[in-house]
Queue: 3 jobs
Job 1
Amino acid sequence: MIPPALRAEARRALALSDAALLAECQVDVFVGTGPGGQHRNKTESAVRLHHPRTGTVVTATERRSQLQNRGAALERLRERLEQLAREPKPRRATRPTRGSQERRLEAKRHAAKRKSERRGDW
């Protein structure tokens, strides 16, 4: 269960502009591995965003450009914050209808009858 204070902090952060949200984050750039050639393997184009107020960390390494990766990481951060801010719908207890109870009991009686007929008289 997500604490209400964390949920409120996520809502507050979602209301910020991209520049303000990025200013709140710790931005780490590092060398991303994988396909993309020398440009990707030798430059610090991968981006990791850490939002300390919510403890959310996202990374983007799929592009060769640090600017594009920063934009992708910011989108992912907003998605995570939306998940944190989402208020779960309260569950309401329901009771089975009379018809469903009767169908279930009839199915049980039918199965019991089949089993008893299978036994036979020894």
Job 2
Amino acid sequence: MSTRVKVWASTALLAAVLAGPSLAADDASVRKDLTAVIALQGLPCGQVVSATRQGDNEYLVSCQDENRYRIFVNLEGRVVVQKQ
């Protein structure tokens, strides 16, 4: 899968998560979408076990394999996944 397609797909997934009506920070569907975003970035996770919403476009997540990530949309509108 090309990098452009991965970026587009992860941006679309995160936009869908962030555009939803007032989602609970640890909702199962949010965790599933964030797991997909991390996988599309090619980072290890397994499955997101907890997600804390930090702002309109930012989450802190903990994975099944004990990795932790900050997921946010940068000023250019791209999804960024940073290992914590």
Job 3
Amino acid sequence: MDIIGLIAKYDRAVPRYTSYPTAPHFSTAIDGGVYARWLRALPEGAALSLYLHVPFCASLCRFCACHTTVVNRPEPLLLYGATLMAEIDLVADRIGGSRTVRHIHWGGGTPTRLPAETMLAVMRRLRARFDVAPDAEIAVEIDPRTLGDDSLAALAAMGTNRVSLGVQDFDPRVQDAINRHQSLALTEDCAARLRSAGIDAINLDLIYGLPYQTTSGVIGTAEQALGVKPSRAAVFGYAHVPWMKKHQALIPDASLPGTVERFAQRQAIEDTFLAHGYAAIGLDHFARPDDALAQAAVGSRLRRNFQGYTTDAAPVLLGLGASSIGALPRGYVQNHPGVPAWRDAIRDGVLPIARGVALTDADRARRAVIEQIMCHFTANPAAIAADSGADPAELADAEPALRGLEADGLVERDGNRITVTGRGRPFVRAVAAAFDSYLARGVARHSAAV
């Protein structure tokens, strides 16, 4: 089967697999009371990671699928910061004792929409309630268009040592269509300011599949982005989900590239980064060979969580802020997505959980198989199931899909081991989906696999 035939067959709606089970399968049966029990049950020596969600931006980008809103008054931002600190206290009180934190990730939205003093106060509260390791990674997502000098100084004072700069695309026509105007010069200046403040690890976020993008255009954006000398780059396919994010309906369907063109754009960006010496990491990340992410991939230590590919090996990820998702040994929890409901729960002294899912042994086995496939393109499902306490026969429902993937040359099998071929790597989400027992239940809509 040629590549066009493969795209036609496998470009279907499947999750990005930053968790398993995925968020659409969370249930309201998991609430703050369940979360409190899970927190109290954490092993004494368990390392933690923290994710803080700040759902505010200065303007709305039409491509965005994040939980965020436009706020330009200080009052909601100050109130959000105070509530975030109250949530930190609630969670730390339920855990009890001290736990070591090795990763802190601020996401959004645009975290630096919070006033600089508020960000500093939140970080002080984190350090007061948790044992933040001296070498902890402290990462912040940044909109280069709005980074003021006060926020820059706060980032340095917080101990920030990695940032992600949103770029998406440098083509003015594409920027007009997605309502995000950002020049290369502005991006370069932002990176230079960050480096002068001592923050040298800079990630860039690019997107393909946006309105009016072309293969030659995304090559141009990638080459310009490489001039910023990023440590890493994340290159995501645009997820057009106007049934979930109504503002995406402002992007005309006719302006979007077709599936074959999207595939060509993805491949062209990959070829450009590889030609400049970057290593391909999993499905959609690239890193310099000396970066910790590339080294983790070489050493089979690469992990995948809600931020994508990561070096974070902590068994516990605590989500803080409206809509944040946490991952614990016993399952997943998600905070109320709306700021008012999240704030009201915390004001009442209640952990602000809206929904979640408790993991079975079979879920843990499937999650581990999917993560291995997404990170390392290979897995031994039978061995993983045995290690997870599950019956390997519970994963047998993947067999029909695996036979088809093997016949199409996307995977190879050696005994119980499955390996994604070079031909199959762009379709790795479809390979992972073979082990997703929730997908056939049809309660969720996802973005296209390619």
